[in-house]
Amino acid sequence: MDEWYPPGTAASWDRVGLVLGEPDARVHRILCVVDIVPQTAREALDLGAQMIISHHPLLFRGVSSVAPTTYAGRIVHDLIRGGVALHVAHTNADIAADGVNEALADLFGLAGREPLTPDGLGRVGTLPSPLPLADFTRLAATVLPATPWGVRAAGDPARMIARVAVSSGSGSQSLPFATAAGADAVVTSDIKHHYASEHIAAGGPAIVEAAHWATEWPWLPRVAGLLRERFGVETIVSRLRTDPWTLHAPSAE
Ligand SMILES: [Zn+2]
Question: Which among 27, 147, 192, 199 is placed 20 to 30 Å from 49, CA to CA?
């Protein structure tokens, strides 16, 4: 994992690498997840996995206790007792060649792709054929993993989309880079009202917003495939939707 996703390439505020597990323990079955939460910890235990690869960190802020009476401590206890190791690849996976943004760009068949930001976050490239924003939004809803709230977009539905930026996870900081890269649309998540309005009013690329989890999940089959090929281990991609948003109701007309 450290070879494909070097820990030194993670953001300085990030917390990546081995979190739990004896380095000498044998691993036959690995579960790949976006979030290490009670449900995915339970899934790993039920599947008899010896390791979890998680995109999001479990222990992100400093902790003074992993008592089982705390949220994260409960997970730590259950995993150690079940003999399950935990490894996190977060911002180091975002920027990597076999990483989260490459997997996201693959969904749209983006050609001639380049990193979106100077740090290597995000990608920008060209669609196989241009299409109006309304159709592109439907395409995004089709190729991204399904969530209850689907995909929404900001911008003129008739705007033609040829050049597309993708920025997995929280993408507010990527909007100016998408504009500078000449993108017609940016696929991302977690964009606040004021960011979106100011960006669109300034003539920036259309914003196509999916659930945070949905923009990162496409990496899981990729990392699972790498691990299977290199080590001959069994890999399982979690299908549990760990996005916190579980309901969507369209407004009355
Ligand atoms: Zn994320």
Answer: 147
Give the distance (Å) from ligand 1 centre to CA of residue 213.
7
DSSP annotation string for 177-213: HHHHTT-SEEEEE---HHHHHHHHHTTPPEEEEE-HH
Provide the residue count of the chain.
Answer: 253
In this structure, the dihedral spanned by the alpha carbons of residues 22, 23, 27 and 29, taken in order and rounded to 10 degrees, is: 80
Q: Write out the two tokens for 253.
A: 């007309």
CA of 57 to the centre of ligand 1 (A): 9
Instruction: Give the Å distance between the CA of 253 and the centre of ligand 1.
Output: 33
pLDDT in tens, 21-69: 999 999 999 999 999 999 999 999 999 999 999 999 998 888 899 999 9
Our measurement of the distance from residue 148's CA atom to the centroid of its chain's CA atoms, rounded to an integer in Å, reads: 17
141 C-alpha to center of ligand 1: Å? 18
Query: Whole-model pTM?
Result: 0.95
Interval between CA 121 and ligand 1 midpoint (Å): 12
User: How many angstroms is it from 212 CA to the middle of ligand 1?
Assistant: 6
